[in-house]
Amino acid sequence: MPSILAILAACLTLSLPAAAATLRLESGVESLSFDSSELLQHPEAAEIEIAADPAYRQPRRYRAVPLASLLSRLAPPEDSALETVALDGYAAQIPLRAVLGTGGKEGSRAWIAVEPADAPWPAMPGKPAGTGPFYIVWERPEAGGIPTKYWTYRLSTLRYVASPTARWPMMEPDPALPGSHPARRGLTVFVTQCLPCHRINGGGTAMLGPDLNHPMNPVEYFQPASLRRYLRDPASLRHWPDQKMPGFTEEQLPERDMESLIAYLAQMAAQRP
């Protein structure tokens, strides 16, 4: 009898439909929810080809919905940005101008790729999980200068927010610095490349990496050459079991951007509260 019950229970489990995932869009007190099964049947859903998927490091095909189409359901507040929050605590800040355009035949276009509940995507190279249940992917990212940090996988929430410096003024370089100071440009690089995983002076949403100015700043415990090497290839300096930080290639972080970023970090160390 126990074995028969076990077989019946297993058959019942296999017959149940796989659970759909939910994506949230938030704006202050307002919010909307999108069910993955509904999105797969969305009127604008389409099969798209991604020529160079940075998460899988190869071409991929997805069923996806234009991101601009979902955002049109809830108007953004004036002067807001889009925060894309992942299940693991990753949180990128994406300018709305980058995601609201349709891209045309030549421009970049953002899509929400939707993982079918009954056909999960494969694990990413070197990682235990795939990019689902939702993944922001881009057609022709090179046309709009879209960095890989804007490809948020394991997406759970889209959120309209104020600009990073309006939310967290503690990340601003000293106002007395001249406009040409490299730390000012370095702030922009930091917001794009570092803020999705790190905080600085307590400012930020991400939960993946440590604060980069408390209790110490990387410029204070890395020699200059070692810090540059660490940014390019962290594993070449040290290993730890749950290492998540990838290196930045020259294409992802050009030398000029690296110099500006390091200048910004040095400035924040000097003015640490």
From TrEMBL:
<keyword id="KW-0479">Metal-binding</keyword>
<dbReference type="GO" id="GO:0009055">
    <property type="term" value="F:electron transfer activity"/>
</dbReference>
<dbReference type="GO" id="GO:0020037">
    <property type="term" value="F:heme binding"/>
</dbReference>
<feature type="domain" description="Cytochrome c">
    <location>
        <begin position="181"/>
        <end position="269"/>
    </location>
</feature>
<keyword id="KW-0408">Iron</keyword>
<keyword id="KW-0732">Signal</keyword>
<dbReference type="InterPro" id="IPR009056">
    <property type="entry name" value="Cyt_c-like_dom"/>
</dbReference>
<dbReference type="InterPro" id="IPR036909">
    <property type="entry name" value="Cyt_c-like_dom_sf"/>
</dbReference>
<dbReference type="GO" id="GO:0046872">
    <property type="term" value="F:metal ion binding"/>
</dbReference>
<protein>
    <submittedName>
        <fullName>Cytochrome C</fullName>
    </submittedName>
</protein>
<feature type="signal peptide">
    <location>
        <begin position="1"/>
        <end position="20"/>
    </location>
</feature>
<keyword id="KW-0349">Heme</keyword>
<dbReference type="Pfam" id="PF00034">
    <property type="entry name" value="Cytochrom_C"/>
</dbReference>
